[in-house]
Amino acid sequence: MTRVGREIRMLEDYYLEGDAVSHERILRDGKPDWNLDVIAGPRDAVLFALDLDYEPDGKERVFKFGAPRESNFRFRIPVYLNSIDEVFRVDADGLRDVEATLNEGTITIRDQASRVAIYVASEKPTERARIEARRQALMTDENALDFDPAHQEADLQVLRQHKNCLPIEHPICSDPIIPNDSKFLFMMRTILFILTLPLSSVCADQAGRKHAENDLHAQPAVRITVGHRDTDITGTDNRALQAAVDYVGNLGGGIVEIGPGEYLMRDSLHLRSRVTVRGAGANTVLKKDREYRSLLAADGDFGEAAITVQDTAGFTIGRGIYVASKSQRNFHGVCATILNTRDNYFTLTRSMNADIMMADDGFAATIFPVISGYRLEDARVENLTVDGNREENPTKVDGCRTAGIFLYRGDSCIITHCTVRDYSGDGISFQQSNDVRVEKCVVERCAGFGLHPGSGSQRPTVKDCRAIANGEDGFFYCWRVRGGLAEGNWLENNGGHGMSIGHKDSDNFVRNNTIIGNQRGGVYWRAETKPMAAHRVTFEANTVRDNEGWGLFVDGATDGTIIRNNVIEDSGAGRQATGIRIGKEAGEVTLEGNKIRTETPVEDDRENSQR
């Protein structure tokens, strides 16, 4: 137990801050051999090999493993971890080198192992020394406690005496006998930490269960109103809205109805699982407050949930903020809420995803998604308007961490009949969120992308939406968005492409959309190499008109592209001179039944244009 506890606590930062990104079961001769799992953070990953080659011993009531055996483990890691400095093995007795080979998106380790093998892959050259220092400190604490129930009978009796009364923060008996022995408390906390790692928070007893006792349990009918007057909760800013959402969320789900009026947003409205947020259409406006911004007065370290700023104006408890630097943006930036303050030092709800350095112009600004949902499911936003107040928010931000409406790991969520306008970033963005539906929404005059299904979001549906006059692409398929449907959307006069599709964005259907007057072209298949290209995309029954340069450009080593039954035309101004352009690296492209009315109908740059 001591060794297991030590190994857990050596790496607890990874467990608490990282995300589970891959799981794979390896078979040998048709039988389970190893489970390979990865937890990844912004600059590191923990790799687990769990031995499945064991036999249960009924007499001794144990599982018996064989001797360490030669194994080759191939772990899948996020592609953003492309600068790994070293890979090493970790256990309670120390750290050691291993033979590791790095390729894009994978690490292959050759090692002698049984039971369990834990490895760390890090971009930080100091990480190995930090973990070893942590191990030494834990051993010092263990020796000072001198509590070993596995080898000391007296300690085992203490454990037996208190096995039914654990006075750790939340007692589980009505009249606990609280031992004065700090060794016992230390061991109980370690046990509880181990046992609660797999658990997630719950609210109502049955709500959210995939197999609840009945429909009434599965879908609580809680309903609450919030607004300027004559409602259950009265208020005009994000705090009133959040109180309503949290109340309903804590009861397992239901509906929050926001009445007409303008609501000043000093922080995001944080969605909750199984809660529907419903407005009164154009009459319900969530308007972002003005932006305050300051350079950092001290580096923001990876894992540090605090910042120090040079100028404190506008930085108050409860405000939402964004922390980033010139080079650490995108997923390496962080959005959080201020919790406490002393002078120019502020604590936050989330920690840094990277080192945000003063030398790299690290800054904090009161920027946040007007509506956001993190790690949730079955939330719904409908029939309201988001005003990003772009005039008073000059800092443009990307859609990896923020947008007018933003989801991160928000599965099976619905955004419908919403308008997002004038946000200094993307209009609607969802990252690593599966089975999301965005329908009948309008995104206009935002500084970034209009609609942004992103970063591993599987099976998205975006239907009957309008993305008009946004600063970049009207519709941007980000990385690894697969199995999606874009149907019936209107993408017009955006500063980038009407639609862009690229990095591993395969097996998507794009049909019945209208793509008009976009400033960098109509639809662009991005220039990716074959492993990363967007394969098997079907583009059918769309209208593509008067975009700059060309209607469609199938670039990169894409394969299996189908383009059929589309109208691709220039109305006479000569702006969209080429109908379809096919890049020199492209694979098979099927053209069927298209009506092309441009100066050059098809421009095929491939050596063998009959492919």
**What do the pLDDT scores average to?**
88
Structural class call reads mainly beta
Strand content: 35-45%
Query: pLDDT under 50 segments (min length 5)?
Result: 163-203
Describe what you observe in this structure.
The structure is a single chain. The protein is mainly beta. Among the domains are: 2-145, Sandwich (Immunoglobulin-like), CATH 2.60.40; 150-199, no CATH class; 293-364, Beta Barrel (Elongation Factor Tu (Ef-tu), domain 3), CATH 2.40.30. Helix content is 12%, strand content 38%. It has a 13-stranded parallel β-sheet with strand order 13-12-14-17-26-29-32-35-38-41-44-47-50, with helices on one face. Strand 7 (86-91) and strand 8 (94-97) form a beta hairpin. It is globular. Residues 163-203 have low confidence and may be disordered.
Would you kindly provide a brief summary of this structure?
The chain is mainly beta and 611 residues long. Helix content is 12%, strand content 38%.
